[in-house]
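Archive maintenance. Older records in this collection stored only the sequence; we are now back-filling the structure field for every entry so that each record is complete. The fields below show one back-filled record exactly as it appears after the update. Entries are processed alphabetically, and Universal stress protein is next in the queue.

ARCHIVE ENTRY
Title: Universal stress protein
Organism field: Flavobacterium sandaracinum
Length field: 274
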Amino acid sequence: MKRILVPTDFSEHAANALKAAALIAQKTKCELYLLHLLEIPNHTSGTTTGGSSIREDILLIKKANEKLEKIKEQPYLAGITVNTSVQYERAFSGILAFNKKNKIDLIVMGSHGTSGIEELLIGSNTEKVVRLSEIPVLVIKKEIGELKFKKMVFASDFSPETKKPFAKMRDFAAIFDANLFLVFICTPNSFKTTLDAEKIMSKFIKNYDIQNYSLHIFNDTNIENGIVNFSKAIDADLIGLCTHGRTGLAHFFTGSISEDLVNHATKPVITFKI
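Back-filled structure field:
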């Protein structure tokens, strides 16, 4: 891990994400990229045409850069290389484009975590980034003191397609010397016997050289509730899972467990694209 992106709208939630990213950067010696996205202007020339003038746009950019420079002075960023950028682009598409251009390894975003929509980078935009990002996305719900990621949950069906995402989860856990709790959620709609679930998980984990892990089977009414309730039961510090990145009708009909958890779970959530 060399580069971490933190999108910011200067809200409290974005500040919490930056604090978490700074703690990760201190452990990994990587750089932080702080990105602020402005709404795309309505004008195409130097005159006012129902939107802001170019002069006003320049002022907005100047103020945003001043705020970013002030943020860089925060004590918790001491010793960390922080790159800043202000761009005119829509929130989620701007974040994804920035990732590719700057070869970002991890996105850390803030989220309200309950209602689902608040301010520029909260709610729907966070969900879109989680669904569409090719790189891991860590969503922070509230301020984290020392970022003690000692208990990490990885919820999965442990199918072959989840092998690469799990390898990334394993590497992330290694940064914090964390214990990994691999959990198979059984529900009325996706029921498996204990023996079958144990066989699937045991076969899956044999592919990895890994320490500090345990295998668990948890029954609940649906997968989302199972992940949340299991995480509460073991007092987990972080929830990790895969996302298919479904779009269009497939996403509409199947929904997205990762997006639901981003909105409803109180724990930080990290997602890995399959």
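Update note: The chain has two domains: 3-140, 151-273. The beta strands are 3-7, 31-38, 82-88, 106-110, 137-140, 151-155, 179-186, 213-219, 238-243, 269-273.
Entry marked complete.
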